[in-house]
Amino acid sequence: MSKRNKELEGEVLTWIFQVLGEPLPKGEFEDILRDGVVLCNLMNKLAPGSVKKIQAKGTNFQLMENIQRFQQAAKNYGLPQEEIFQTADLFERRNISQVALSLFALGRITQKHPEWTGPTLGPKMAEKNERTFTEEQLRASEGQVNLQMGYNKGASQAGHGGFGNTRHM
């Protein structure tokens, strides 16, 4: 079990309910999100119509389907597959910290969507910073030997002796 970060979980819950425009409910992080209804509603706020069917009540299997629908919608929204938590991480409370990290990443991804004007989460996303150099600038360093090319300022192993011997000073 990885160490849980209650501060991060609180930040994620606050963000989710700011997006939904609802008051933050009382209860544990995993209990609020476990049935997947809040997660599906979140995705429908971020990308309207991304989750078509939401089971408010039902068997465990039906509630787990909510989580799977959320995961698919998050992936379609741009959240990388490796950042999406497993269904069992949340539903069976196996790895709640991964759930929090995944939702934090989703909050960060909203910054890449110009149509989203609501709250975001986490630090500002880096933007592409392409640099162009002239041919002259690229050729300027060709005659130099830098330290990564094996130049060792005259140091050698002369006088070391053979392999396994100590160095005599």
TrEMBL record:
<comment type="similarity">
    <text>Belongs to the calponin family.</text>
</comment>
<keyword id="KW-0677">Repeat</keyword>
<comment type="function">
    <text>Thin filament-associated protein that is implicated in the regulation and modulation of smooth muscle contraction. It is capable of binding to actin, calmodulin and tropomyosin. The interaction of calponin with actin inhibits the actomyosin Mg-ATPase activity.</text>
</comment>
<dbReference type="GO" id="GO:0007015">
    <property type="term" value="P:actin filament organization"/>
</dbReference>
<dbReference type="GO" id="GO:0031032">
    <property type="term" value="P:actomyosin structure organization"/>
</dbReference>
<dbReference type="GO" id="GO:0015629">
    <property type="term" value="C:actin cytoskeleton"/>
</dbReference>
<dbReference type="InterPro" id="IPR050606">
    <property type="entry name" value="Calponin-like"/>
</dbReference>
<feature type="domain" description="Calponin-homology (CH)">
    <location>
        <begin position="6"/>
        <end position="110"/>
    </location>
</feature>
<dbReference type="Pfam" id="PF00402">
    <property type="entry name" value="Calponin"/>
</dbReference>
<dbReference type="InterPro" id="IPR003096">
    <property type="entry name" value="SM22_calponin"/>
</dbReference>
<keyword id="KW-0112">Calmodulin-binding</keyword>
<dbReference type="InterPro" id="IPR036872">
    <property type="entry name" value="CH_dom_sf"/>
</dbReference>
<protein>
    <recommendedName>
        <fullName>Calponin</fullName>
    </recommendedName>
</protein>
<dbReference type="GO" id="GO:0005516">
    <property type="term" value="F:calmodulin binding"/>
</dbReference>
<dbReference type="Pfam" id="PF00307">
    <property type="entry name" value="CH"/>
</dbReference>
<dbReference type="GO" id="GO:0051015">
    <property type="term" value="F:actin filament binding"/>
</dbReference>
<dbReference type="InterPro" id="IPR001997">
    <property type="entry name" value="Calponin/LIMCH1"/>
</dbReference>
<dbReference type="InterPro" id="IPR000557">
    <property type="entry name" value="Calponin_repeat"/>
</dbReference>
<dbReference type="InterPro" id="IPR001715">
    <property type="entry name" value="CH_dom"/>
</dbReference>
<keyword id="KW-0009">Actin-binding</keyword>
